[in-house]
């Protein structure tokens, strides 16, 4: 729901949409004929040495490309590897797409189950980093005890997305179990569950502090939670973990609780699917399911210039292939008809000031974007605090000229980070 202030300068408000008291059933998507797992690729190694086409894999098996590699994916099905191919994601991130053809029967890999009776952070990092919700266990493992607070997101940061809301309310016992295990295996002193202010009831015995945020976007974004709930402002260029705070989705914590309760690594992803007509569905599918299979299950067709967005309407990104798979961090898929899609333009800034008024970081966005359009990224950092941006996307949303400000900012940060790598420095 969008509202405008009645007095003063008009600023748009976007409210989070709360789920009803009686939660709908999830719609389960059948296991597809082929599933694809995106394994992070080491640029220095080209040919995988531990996986080969035709290899048999079990459900819950840990798949790594190279011996002693920390990165891995978990097979959600029993079957055979059909292909191994390079895959390029956003901002040049590279993967190996591991495609598996499911077999007729299921065999569970019990390697994790044999160790699940004794939870440790090392065990969690070794098997659950790619679980549904994408738990950021590497941050805990690499912090050397520097993480003192875990914030669990029971409210999705992007409006219209209801994944975290739904799963926190529907799987209370697994959430409590996951919180208990995190307390057991870490040195974290505080665990806080964040939800909308009016939905705080019912979490009294969850094992964590429960704190509410305003139901107005972008109150659930990590930087806003840091400021409004924890009373800490994240300095420009710093991350929340630099201040000792780590953010988990509710599904990530539930994956941990479920894994140690059952002895089996969860591989089923819950996500919000929004059709062209705006209908919102909570669905459940295995990680690696092609987006096209989900559209087929709902009878949704995609025409030329329609858009498929992964993530929310404010901070999500478009994908351009129906073969793109659901990942452990895919919380939402939105299909937008071409007639309703907002297109960027090359129209110049008219200095209306809407982006400045709506910016929660109080940045001079209208000036910043001029430097970004000219690829003057260092000047954008020095003169207009590029790194102070919390990437909420409100500037692009309110821009009268339809300048893709949010995308300019993300590109600038990416290029500045890439320039720090030795390869770019030598180029």
**Which class do the helix and strand fractions yield?**
alpha/beta
Low-confidence stretches: 1-9
Work out the helix count.
13
Helix content: 25-40%
Order of strands across the biggest sheet? 3-15-14-18-16-17
Average of per-residue pLDDT values: 91
* Coarse shape: globular
Instruction: Give Rg in angstroms.
Output: 22 Å
Short description:
By secondary structure, the protein is of the alpha/beta class.
Task: Describe the fold and architecture.
With 427 residues, the chain is α/β, with parallel strands linked by helices. Helices cover 25% and strands 20% of the residues. It has 13 helices and 18 strands. It has helices spanning 121-127, 137-142, 163-170, 172-185, 222-228, 250-262, 291-297, 354-358, 365-373, 377-384, 394-398, 405-418, 422-426, and strands at 2-4, 12-14, 27-28, 35-40, 56-57, 62-63, 73-74, 79-88, 94-102, 149-153, 190-196, 209-213, 245-249, 268-274, 280-286, 307-310, 317-319, 332-336. The strands form five sheets. The protein has a six-stranded mixed beta sheet with strand order 3-15-14-18-16-17, covered by helices on one side. Strands 4-9-8-5 form a four-stranded antiparallel beta sheet, with no helix packed on it. It has a four-stranded parallel beta sheet with strand order 12-11-10-13. Mean pLDDT is 91; it is low at 1-9.
């Amino acid at each position: 729901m969008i509202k405008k202030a009645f007095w003063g300068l008009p600023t748009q408000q976007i409210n989070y949409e709360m789920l009803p008291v009686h939660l709908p059933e999830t719609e389960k998507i059948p296991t597809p004929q082929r599933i694809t797992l995106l394994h992070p690729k080491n640029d220095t190694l080209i040919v995988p040495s531990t996986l080969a086409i035709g290899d048999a894999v079990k459900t819950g098996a840990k798949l790594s490309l190279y011996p002693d590699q920390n990165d891995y994916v978990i097979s959600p099905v029993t079957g055979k590897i059909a292909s191994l191919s390079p895959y390029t994601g956003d901002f040049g991130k590279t993967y190996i797409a591991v495609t598996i053809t499911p077999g007729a029967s299921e065999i569970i890999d019990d390697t994790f189950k044999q160790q699940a009776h004794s939870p440790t952070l090392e065990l969690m990092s070794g098997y659950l980093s790619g679980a549904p919700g994408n738990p950021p266990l590497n941050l805990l493992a690499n912090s050397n005890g520097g993480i003192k607070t875990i914030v669990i997101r029971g409210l999705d940061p992007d409006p219209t997305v209801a994944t975290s809301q739904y799963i926190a309310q529907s799987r209370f016992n697994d959430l409590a179990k996951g919180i208990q295990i995190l307390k057991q295996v870490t040195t974290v002193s505080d665990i806080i569950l964040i939800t909308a202010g009016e939905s705080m009831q019912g979490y009294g015995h969850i094992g964590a502090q429960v704190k509410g945020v305003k139901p107005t976007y972008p109150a659930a974004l990590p930087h806003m939670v840091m400021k409004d709930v924890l009373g800490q402002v994240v300095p420009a260029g710093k991350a929340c973990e630099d201040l000792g705070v780590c953010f988990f989705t509710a599904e990530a914590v539930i994956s941990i609780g479920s894994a140690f309760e059952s002895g089996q690594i969860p591989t089923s992803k819950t996500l919000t699917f929004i059709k062209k007509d705006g209908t919102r569905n909570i669905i459940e599918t295995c990680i690696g399911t092609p987006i096209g299979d989900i559209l087929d299950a709902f009878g949704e067709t995609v025409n030329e210039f329609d858009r498929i967005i992964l993530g929310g309407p404010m901070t999500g990104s478009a994908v351009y292939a129906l073969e793109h798979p659901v990942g452990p961090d895919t919380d939402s898929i939105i299909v937008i008809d071409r007639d309703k899609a907002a297109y960027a333009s090359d129209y110049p800034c008219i200095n209306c000031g809407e982006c400045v008024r709506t910016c929660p970081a109080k940045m001079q966005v209208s000036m910043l974007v001029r430097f970004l359009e000219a690829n003057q990224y260092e000047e954008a950092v020095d003169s207009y605090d590029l790194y102070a941006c919390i990437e909420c996307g409100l500037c692009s949303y309110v821009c009268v000229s339809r300048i893709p400000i949010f995308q300019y900012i993300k590109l600038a940060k990416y290029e500045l980070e890439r320039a720090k790598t030795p390869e770019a420095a030598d180029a």
